[in-house]
Backbone:
């Protein structure tokens, strides 16, 4: 674990508790402060209020899906620069909407079924601390 002057805060926006709970626990165990939201409406509110260092974002959610949340997030100054890691069961090759969202930089992509929690943490560290990787 990297020794930073403050804990990096990660906002996880995910509607499925079976993925949200273990991911949040893994992130907390790796030294991150974790915020959690169950849909895009809640996620957008938390992002604007708390200004996390990074957002992990599911695409398929109730009330406001991840793509709508990301578009609204990118309208603000903070939202234009915060890194977003899209976590979804959809393949980027199967859905052109994901490619469109991925163009809203800085945006990264991980397939839930393909990546382990450890790989997600590694991707977060790579994005937040690029010099160390």
Residues:
């Amino acid at each position: 674990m990297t020794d930073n002057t403050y804990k990096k805060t990660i906002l996880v926006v995910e509607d499925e508790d079976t993925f949200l709970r273990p991911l949040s626990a893994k992130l907390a165990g790796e030294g991150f402060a974790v915020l959690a939201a169950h849909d895009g409406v809640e996620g957008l509110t938390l992002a604007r209020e708390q200004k996390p260092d990074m957002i992990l974002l599911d695409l398929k959610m109730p009330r406001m899906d991840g793509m709508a949340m990301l578009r609204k997030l990118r309208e603000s100054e903070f939202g234009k620069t915060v890194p977003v890691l899209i976590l979804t069961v959809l393949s980027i090759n199967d859905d052109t909407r994901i490619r469109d969202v991925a163009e809203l930089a800085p945006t990264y992509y991980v397939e839930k079924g393909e990546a382990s929690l450890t790989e997600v943490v590694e991707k977060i560290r790579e994005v937040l601390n690029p010099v160390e990787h």
Residues 17-29 form the longest helix (13 residues). The chain has one domain: 9-108.
